[in-house]
Design goal:
Elements: H1 2-31, H2 43-47, E1 54-61, H3 69-82, E2 89-95, H4 106-116, E3 122-123, E4 126-133, E5 145-147, E6 152-155, H5 157-162, H6 172-187, H7 240-251
Parallel strand pairs: 1-2, 1-4, 4-6
Antiparallel strand pairs: 3-4, 5-6
Helix pairs in contact: 3-6
Bound molecules: zinc ion.
Length: about 260
């Protein structure tokens, strides 16, 4: 008899806790903003399909700043080659007006981008990364693109135009293609952002970047004077060291840190 009462009590308490958890969950979401993380904070969420089986690349651009089809197609190709997304990777375009006055800081990018996000970076089984293409330039106008948190990137079209080389070599299209893949490479944790590579390919003077000018993660790829540092065609692919890092992270042989989700 006493035992039965106890069981009833346990059930009642469990129900109460479940309700409480639901309420708390909702209210906490409203009070505490979603953690934004650092670039690389959603690397495993992309590389593996344990929790996220599909992915959306959200592209928010101001009028006149829509990225070229070649850039988004190349990006999807690169992501598909390294991320396990059995239910597919798709692109969602949205024309927006960010209403930014003056140059952009990293904090401006975070704030304005999050105002426009069409969904949470982690919603059910879908991972969402966002690329914004605003009018205007970064505070340092030689910066072509920035990765500001685990799911957010900005690319500065006016500066990308400026980076076109003499006689269109590299062309603004080449530059845009490379910078898009480069910044997404940072969201993939490259180079050494959320792990320690077993191979020494991080540039000593440019943390988070490759020392190989054949890698899209080469440090000069996000600067307007890239043509002064890269001879021949611009890299737009991950090199073997980058790919080996990603493979090691995916199979767990390289430890990873700072994940928003694990
Ligand atoms: Zn970079």
């Amino acid at each position: 008899m006493k035992r039965q009462t106890l069981q009833t009590l346990v059930v009642v308490v469990l129900v109460a806790f479940t309700n409480l958890a639901g309420c708390l969950g909702d209210s906490l979401d409203e009070i505490i903003p979603e953690r934004k993380g650092i670039p690389g904070g959603l690397t495993l969420a992309c590389l593996t399909s344990t929790s996220y089986t599909s992915m959306i690349v959200e592209v928010d651009y101001e009028p006149g700043y829509k990225p070229l089809t070649s850039s988004t197609e190349m990006l999807i190709e690169r992501l598909t080659s390294v991320c396990d997304k059995p239910d597919g990777i798709s692109v969602e375009f949205q024309e927006v007006n960010f209403g930014q006055q003056g140059d952009w800081t990293a904090e401006d990018v975070r704030t304005k981008a999050w105002e426009e996000k069409s969904g949470s970076p982690r919603e059910d089984s879908t991972l969402r990364w966002q690329l914004i293409f605003p009018a205007g330039t970064y505070t340092d106008a030689s910066v072509l693109g920035v990765a500001v948190d685990a799911s957010t990137i900005a690319l500065f079209g006016d500066s990308i135009e400026q980076a076109e080389g003499p006689f269109g070599r590299p062309s603004a299209e080449d530059v845009e293609n490379s910078v898009v893949v480069h910044e997404v490479g940072h969201l993939l944790g490259l180079v050494n952002l959320v792990y320690e590579s077993p191979v020494d390919h991080e540039d000593d003077e440019h943390p988070g970047h490759s020392n190989n000018d054949q890698s899209v993660m080469y440090w000069a790829v996000e600067s307007t004077d890239l043509a002064n540092f890269i001879f021949g065609s611009l890299p737009n692919e991950f090199d073997s060291d980058d790919l080996n890092d990603l493979a090691g992270l995916a199979d767990g042989s390289i430890p990873i840190r700072d994940q928003l989700w694990s």
